[in-house]
Input
Amino acid sequence: MNEDYFLEQDRDHEFLEGNRGLSQDQRAELGLGALVFVVVGLLVAMLAFVLHEAWPSFAHNGLGWFGGGGSVDQQIQSLFNSGQYKTLPNYTFHAWPLIWSTILITLGAVAIAFVTSLFVAVFIVEFAPAWLRRILEPVVRLLASVPSVIYGLAGVLVIVPLIGNHVVTQGEKASVTPTIQLSGASLLAAVVILTVMIAPIMIAVFADGLQAVPRGWLEGSLALGINEWRTFWKVAVRTARPVLVAGTVLATARALGEAIMVSMVSGGVPFAPNPVDGLIFFFEPSQPLAATIIRNTEGLSSPALKHTLYAIAAVLLFSSAMLSIIGWAAKQPMRRYGVVP
Amino acid sequence: MSAVTATPVRRPDRATASWRLSDRLGLGLAWLLGLLFCAIAAAIVIYFLVEGLRYLRPNLLVTNPAAAASETQTGGFLDPLLGTLIIGAMSMAIAVPVGVGIAVWLSEFGRPTGLARVAESAVEMMAGEPSIVLALFGLTLFTLPALGFLSQSTHGVVLGQSFFAAAALLSLVGLPLVVASTREGLQAIPSHVREASYAVGKTKIATTRRVLLPAARPSVITGTMLGLGRVISDTAIVLLLLGGTLTFQSANSVPLLGLLRGTGDTLTGYIYYNAPTGDGNQPSKAYAAAFVLMLFVLAINLGVDFVVSRSRKAVTWK
Output
């Protein structure tokens, strides 16, 4: 409230020094404001560029873009060729197998990681012995910052052969041979590695939120004779619910946009895994949206395929922007209690 | 207000026999999953330590990747290693000043409120964007003829791949972390510190430069390191915007500028290339490079821990 008074003083002071025009502060404010404006402008430019490049693909296919039909591999091939031979571009593209794969892998990993991370975060914050907690906190942060390509490497050299050689039987492989190959690069492998990758992110956010719950609230509950587990579960975890949502959304965005690791372990075949296939469903290869872009980067030279890849990017851009907004909105209630993680 | 100290409420000698079954199951599950997490973390760390030490040879660090049939002749990863360092330095050279500037504006000025709200959510959105989308955006941006001077062009077609392009886009990856950390540090400084500075006749910007930023230095360093960690772990932007050419391909013979306008690779790109799914398919090289990259990440993490613990011990505002 006194700030304006001091600002006034500053201005007088500079005025007496004979500083004409804008004051030092005003110039700084304008300069920094311009910087902020540029960065916001860059984001708007990104939206504009990506949507502009994506438009032909959406315009040609309409809502059919999101639907199924035909083989994605053949469509990508013909998109690539139509650009190559300078014929009339044929933008036909039906992304459903890719979208379905993205949904399965992301939701699978997020669901498993959410439950696991919640319990691990509760363990770390409340129930772990002090020495274990001192080790676990840096380890969580280290695992959260391991590059995704390293997780991909571990997946393709350990998990994929393990599934391919020991989990999938020869009979199961033979039963689907003409359509797809069960090499081990599968839905299961992608979900497992992605879970390991995003769980540390969730644990870190959850633990921060749980730690921010005032001790007094827990002690109040304990004083009423409620046991430690129930106290923590019903008071701390409930209070931290906004943080749980925010952390989950953050991890979902990361999982959705993960291209490198998933392209290494998911099989790279745009096949839509079918739950009707029973157990084989989990071993079926697929290819999510982000991985499709990374696998077709050499096709960016062909205009038709380029527009299609930008259309995929536009879908990812839109989804992750929505997730960011949800995550930001979810954090607000916690601020209102005065509990800021 | 209640004291927010992290003393556990639990007393160690408390028996759980009187608890309800569901509560005991919950506690058991927490222990089980907690220990499982420890096991997985240990497995990952030990696995990469063992495999890395098995395949890492000193000459891998000083030779360049080369095309050869046998694995003994394909060289090491000197250029990708240098590429990681160059990319990290260039990106942070952009991200830190811009990030600190944005954080100062958001925390100290922040008017008009509408722009502040927009800027806040823009930074948040930038943090959530997949790097593959940023990479595609970068490709359209840097293939514009107007920005052709930052990369190579053949017959008037701009390639759009260079150290400049990759570093510019990677700085957007690091930026949100710098902004968030710096802003947190600035907001932790109580307002009476600012008022004391105003009272002795300092302007707002002088206060920021002489009082607030020095006080928030640990936060700036933490944000820088976190951003650097994110930047050197990125692969998608490196593949698309740096070219992923394993060795440095200078645009021309001008010493530094030619290199930065040319294409190259980083450790992440090298690992991707040498994984069984990549074109190189030499897992031993990939393990060795992964080990070196993990050492970088570990060093950055230890650095953050060190800065944070030292700043906690430092003078706190009353």
Summary: Residues 56-313 of chain B form a domain with the MetI-like fold fold (CATH 1.10.3720.10). Chain B touches chain A through 102 residues (CB under 8 Å). The first helix of chain B runs from residue 21 to 55. The mean pLDDT of chain B is 86.
